[in-house]
Amino acid sequence: MHKPEQITSTNISPCVKQRKGFALILTLSALAVIIALSAVLVSYLDIARKDANSSKAMIQGNIYYSDIKALFGSFQDKKLLYETIYSSPIPISSEDGKFTLIVSCKPLANAVNINWLAYENNASMTAQYNAVEKIFFNLAQEYNMEDAANLETMLRNEIVSKQKYIQKEKSRLRQKNGIISIEQFKDIVGKYQRASDDKEIYKIPWTKYFVFNELSEDPKDNVIEGNYISAELLAYLFDIDYASVKEDWSEGSSLKDYVLNLGQSYNQKLFSKEFLSQSRCEVFYDYGEERYGFKFEDREGEVKHFEFLGKQ
Description:
By secondary structure, this protein is α+β, with helices and mostly antiparallel strands. It has 2 domains: 48-108 and 277-311; 112-261, no CATH class. It is built from 9 helices and 7 strands; from the N terminus they run ααβββααααβαααβββ. It has helices spanning 14-74, 78-87, 126-142, 148-160, 171-175, 182-196, 231-238, 242-248, 255-261; strands at residues 90-93, 100-107, 112-113, 210-211, 278-287, 290-299, 302-311. The chain has a 5-stranded antiparallel β-sheet. Helix 4 crosses helix 6. It is globular and about 55 Å long. The chain crosses the membrane at residues 21-45. It comes from hydrothermal vent metagenome.
C-alpha cells in the first residue's frame, strides 16, 4: 500500500517558510506600532491631566489671591503688616487645617532701579544715574565682563527705545516703560551672552543689586527703601568692605544710622525718608500632591498684577 508522504521540515516549501516569516515580521511590527501609540496616548493623557491639575490649581490660586487682597486691604497699619512679612514669611491656615498658605513679601524698591540708566541727561536725577552706573561698573570689574559697554548699551536701548530687543507676549509688559521684570532683563543678558560668549555673566546675582520697576517722574518712585537693601549692594554703594557689612548689617535696620556711624555720607535724595507702601509678594500653597505659587504687587494699598507661577 502506498504510504502518505510525511511532511517534515525538509520538504516544506521555501515559499511557505517565507510567508510565515513575513507574517511574523508584520505581527511584530504591528505590535510595536500599537505599543508606541499606546505610549504616546498615555503621554498625552498624562500631559492633559497635568494641564487640568494646573488649571484647577490656578483657579484655586485666584481664590486665595482674592482672599489675601481683601485681607491686606482691611489691614489699617500697612507699615506693621509689611515690616512683619519682610522679616520672615508667614503661614496663613484655615481653622480646620485643610489648607495653608506661605506668604512672603519684599519692598519693590529695595535696590537700585535698572531703569535709572535712562536718566543720563536728567539733571534732577543725577544721584539715581550715578548710583546705577556705579553698581554696573563695580559688577563689570568684579565679574570681569567681556563687553560691559555693549551690555549697558543694550539695556539702555531696551529702556528708552521704542524698538525693543525683547518683544514680550504679555500686554502689561508692552504697556510699561523700561525693563519691568527680571525675566525681561535676563532675556537681554542672554542675548548679550550669545554675542559676547561671556562665561561669567550668569554668575552675577543681579537681584541683590537691581530692581526692575517702571520709569516714573514721581519722586517717591525714584528712591531706594534703604533699610532693606542687601549687604552686597550696601558695600558697593558706600565703598565698604563686604566682609564687614555681611557681619554687621541686618535688613530692616536703619541704613542712615549704620552709614553715618561708619563716617560715610548719606544722600537724602537717593533713599526714602519714610516707609514706602510698595511691595511685591509671593504665595505658595499645596493643591493635590503638588505645590504651586503666584505673585502680586501692593502699591499704596492697591493690590494688583496677579501672576500664576505654576508648579514649584
